[in-house]
Amino acid sequence: MLHIVIPVFNRLHFTRACLQSLRRQTHQAFRVIVVDDGSTDGTSEHLAQEFAEVEVLRSSGDLFWTATVNLGIRRALALGADRVMTLNNDVVAPPDFVEHMLLWSQRQPRALMGPLELDAATGKPVFGGELFSFLTHRTRSLLDILGPDQRTGLHPVTFLPGRGLLVPAEVFHTVGLFDEGRLPHYLADYDFTSQARRQGFPVYVNYATHLLTYPDESGQTQTRRHRSFRGYYQHLFGIRGGGNLANFSHFAIKNAPATYLPLFLLNGYVRRLVGYFLH
């Protein structure tokens, strides 16, 4: 059975909307595990009252994204999950989301999959997968590559984010869990899917289904909206910093081909040092 793992920290209104959308799924053969990492807005108590079908795990508030997700994955695997989906709480799933993800997963049982993402406010596509070059450090968006008539079915990508990421249990048994030791918050999802792809598991974006997301609510967007030298320091060295230099170094060493690694590291450091003020 599919188990959906949702890490949360506050933002109860997003969590409620996400869980309500899961209640409306046409396919209901799944279980939901919410991992509440120290919320102070009464999230756990409210979910216990309104969503009795959801299992809520509570942690102390110092796990950050990666360890929080791993806690839920361990619980899902202990319950016998054959597939696990990681899902952010600030998404809304259309009624056929789970049905279509599982349909395509049955066709490609060893594949990791993520959905096409639409802006919840406008309905416009905001993420449709990427092809990344470790040589040039450049990303090509499939939304720019694929024509309207090609935006259907599965398309291979280099890696995927954890928003709606469907993972067969076999992948965890082969690759392990997300790397909470070296990548406690950002890049753990990209690292995990990259590692899985390198070990022979296909990685696809599924254009047959989509999630509604809120791009302006991401941590990196919020940080860059109010730029400051303190924010710059957090960007480069904070655990939640999108440009964290240590995290990038670990990701690069684990995933970049050895012949490209020096140039990839240099390129990445420069982008992170100056990019905070340019985007």
UniProtKB/TrEMBL annotation:
Residues 4-110 form the Glycosyltransferase 2-like domain. Transmembrane segments: none annotated. It comes from the Bacteria. Signal peptide: none annotated. It holds the Pfam family Glycos_transf_2. This is Glycosyltransferase family 2 protein. It comes from Hymenobacter jeongseonensis.
